[in-house]
Amino acid sequence: MGGIALRGEWGMGEGMARDVPRQTRYDAVIIGSGPNGLAAALTLAREGLGVLVVEAYGVPGGGTRTAELTLPGYLHDVCSAVHPMALVSPFFRGMRLEEEGLEWVHPEVVLAHPLDGGRAAVMHRGVEETAAGLGEDGKAWLGVFGRLRDSLPGMWDDLLGPLPVMPRHPIGMMRFGRNAVRSAAGLVGSVFRTEGARALFGGNAAHSVLPLEKPLTAAVGVALGLAGQTTGWPVARGGSGAIAGAMVRRLEKLGGEVVCGWRVETLGELPAASAYLFDTGPGQMASICGGRLPGGYVERLKRFRYGPGVFKLDMALSGPIPWANAECRRAGTVHVGGGFEEIAASERRCWGEGVDGKPFVLVAQQSVCDGSRAPEGKHTAWAYCHVPSGSVEDHAEAVLGQMERFAPGFRDTVLATHAMGPGDYERYNANNAGGDIVGGVMDAWQLYTRPVARWNPWTTPAADVFLCSSSTPPGPGVHGMCGWHAGKTVLRRVFGKGPSAW
Questions:
Q1: Separation of alpha carbons 360 and 366, rounded Å
Q2: Domains plus CATH for the chain?
Q3: CA within 20 to 30 Å of 390's CA: 35, 101, 138, 378, which one?
């Protein structure tokens, strides 16, 4: 392996001279410039309201930033890399950020899951094509995903909305719920027989960051699989930072402002506004608001639960990853973790026991479809595994070992690495408590009661304070829907108007 190893330096910290707001009063101030904060700002600015976004770091983006973390000329996504929910998001569909220069790039293969012996299960952008490669489980795969596909795209409006008490697409939601309410282990055990189909579904479900025996983990596997087999899992050309860049450009055209390098400590230091929206964790919101929020509500926020953290390696490579299976070389995303039982064991261990030599590793190789990520002929790799909250162990060897297992000779391609563990991620963004990158546990209780059980989860007891982060429904992912729902709530409650039609 190459001789350069870096740890926890992302090249975009504080200390830069901050901008100054142009005004002393705004209609709305948003704290945090992740995709949800920017989505909330765009929702409001689109209605002609004066909007200010305040960001602690020197550049906007939150979970959508890109930096040269290893060597000059190698562009690495600091957090999110592949975006399954972006093209199904009603917010992104309506905002049409392609007009601001954002370009989505699709790999030839959506997802590959290598297995021992040079085999792999493959997910294509087409349910039939995927099913055709799963042998005797092809019919069962069609049974899970085929009829659901026929309920799109409208069903995404319900799935990415608040708790769908009265869904607008009830038949589609009934089809989705039939499998989604189950555990991934239960679905796999009763529906699939082959190692490939079981592993392919299990890897998708593991994005829930929950033990796969838990209820609703199948929902994540179904939703991600459905997105991949219809609209794909694209990357943003030039890096995930291009998403934030396009959102900021649109916001500025609408008259909004973004001020970077300003870490907000108290609500009183901000300009006056009719509404304050927090693209932060619940704890940070409570701390900044001080006594503005009732004590009882703050106590409920303190009971909000965070889950495991992540350990991530970014790598500069001398060439493409030499996967033993050729389909893996064409995939934008590769799930590295063997069969379903091995994946499930890894996802149980990260809740307390720690990481052994075979963690489930999520790999993105954006440079297979986006040549701008590395110098000509060179490549990048982005890989992470789930680890116990706050873990301080270096899991680089475990990650590299799993990749070498399915790509013999991989270590020889590594020119430089950059590692970030739970502590690095929390210092990078306080929303990532203990290294949790999904904004809090997404189990059966906390999925829709994020951050507390309220009829409208984006509101607080303070009439001018709102939460718009991934700690609200529908949760994590680059889809902007948490911010869109919060923005629409502010329009109705504070300004007495609904959003204009897209």
A1: 19
A2: 9-67+79-102+236-304+438-493 (3.50.50.60)
A3: 35
